[in-house]
Amino acid sequence: MLSSIVESVLEKYLGKYIEGIKNNTDVSMIDGCTTIENASIKPAFINEFGLPFSLKYSHIDQIMIQVPWTKLKEKSSVINITGIYILFELSHNTER
């Protein structure tokens, strides 16, 4: 139940940028840690910038979000991203 609520919130705020939030999220509310494993960057997000290359492949091993629920005013939330693999392809139809 709680896991599905956290997944919905993460999907709302990170869903535009990251694929694989649903069914890849582990939630531990006791220590305030949420982990997303085996996700990827959405190509549409990178392509919005109008760069002379496009995203061909991406993989994120782990995104760990730590929220100190009992001390929100005293401690910072921390996001650790581990293992980012990105393959770009040069666009041939660019004017730059």
Structure notes:
By secondary structure, the chain is an alpha+beta fold. The protein has one domain (2-90). Helices cover 19% and strands 44% of the residues. The protein contains two helices and five strands. It has helices spanning 2-14, 43-47, and strands at 18-19, 25-28, 33-41, 53-66, 78-90. Strands 1, 2, 3, 4 and 5 form a five-stranded antiparallel β-sheet that branches.
Summary of the model, kept short:
The protein contains 2 helices and 5 strands. It has helices at 2-14, 43-47; strands at 18-19, 25-28, 33-41, 53-66, 78-90. Strands 1, 2, 3, 4 and 5 form a 5-stranded antiparallel beta sheet that branches.
What is the topological layout?
Elements: H1 2-14, E1 18-19, E2 25-28, E3 33-41, H2 43-47, E4 53-66, E5 78-90
Antiparallel strand pairs: 1-3, 2-3, 3-4, 4-5
How many β strands by DSSP? 5
Report the order of strands and helices.
Answer: HEEEHEE
Number of domains: 1
Distance between the termini: 50 Å
Percentage of residues assigned to helices: 10-25%
Q: Please give the radius of gyration in angstroms.
A: 16 Å
Q: Please tally the helical runs, counting DSSP H or I stretches of 4 or more residues.
A: 2
Which features would summarize this protein structure in a list?
five-stranded antiparallel β-sheet, 96 residues, 5 strands, alpha+beta
